[in-house]
Amino acid sequence: MFLLKILFYIALPIASLIYFYFHKKFSYFEKRGIPHQKPKFPMGNLQGLGSKFTFFDIIHDIYKKFKDKDVIVGLYSVVTPIYLITDIELAKNILIRDFNFFINRRGYVNEEDEPLTAHLFNLMDDKWKFLRNKLSPVFTSGKMKSMYYTISDKGQNYLAIVDKAMRQNESINIKEITNRFTVDIISSVAFGMNANTMNDEHPELLRFFKEIFNAEGFSFAKMFFMMAFPKIAQKLKMKIFSKEMSDFFMNVVSNNIENRERTNDNRHDFLNMLIQLKNKGSIDGEFSTEHRKITLNEALAQSFVFYFGNLKMTLKILMICSCKIS
């Protein structure tokens, strides 16, 4: 009985602190008179995220509910208040005219302990502006077209595998082979790596793909905690990616950069442009008033996000195209 009383006196103030903390956080929009979706403890408006719904499912449902009534809607990502814009003209102002006031994103950055997180999508303020200006020329139509031959080469391998299966009247898992095709292309362009996962080489790349996009259980909870409480996660030195994954990508890209610099190999791909920014501060054929160079870790992080930022969407587009063609 005495032990129960001790536990009660310990638990009561802790529970009270948690209650008042969440109550204060969940009153942000109400205090400001902003229409909002009523939050629930402890996930705010993200109940069912990962198990039943994606983040975009939740956002879309809230958007449909408020789009004809309000131009700005509030919602909570756990305890973090987020503004959802339902008016297209206001969205244009934010993304174009007033963009300089809205450059920062929500993301977890731990540049010292996990350099791969310091990519363009996560950085803020002056660091973001610096890298944004450096990387803008990379995505011009001319630069993207120069990567066509790499894509074409991998495409021939893809067609050969599909053609072989058809001639032998074998079934083929189109999602799996398209996934491997996508991994091979982006690995080559982003890392300068001949992955060849379509022929069962470098299976670790497919494993890392699943680690990022199919996170569940403890991995999902950890990633979500880091996004919701980035400052606490930084103090705890938490990491998004496994040590195996981080070491693999950093070693592969670092070695490829070193090899290209040693052999003066100038391929037309994303990695080559990062090498130019690292060594010269500008990309060949592009005018720049800012000649400050990017660091090796900055190059590694941008290469990494180019890889994972393109995988899922490219795979989905190719899957839709395959279904339409069939």
UniProtKB/TrEMBL annotation:
Membrane disposition: Peripheral membrane protein
**Signal peptide residue numbers:** none
Q: Which cofactor does it need?
A: heme
* Predominant location: endoplasmic reticulum
Q: Could you tell me which SUPFAM superfamilies the record lists for this protein?
A: Cytochrome P450
> What InterPro entries does the database record attribute to this sequence?
Cyt_P450, Cyt_P450_E_grp-II, Cyt_P450_sf, Insect_CytP450_Detox
List locations, semicolon-separated: Endoplasmic reticulum membrane; Microsome membrane
Q: Where are the transmembrane segments?
A: 6-22
Similarity comment text for this entry: Belongs to the cytochrome P450 family.
* The protein, known as: Cytochrome P450
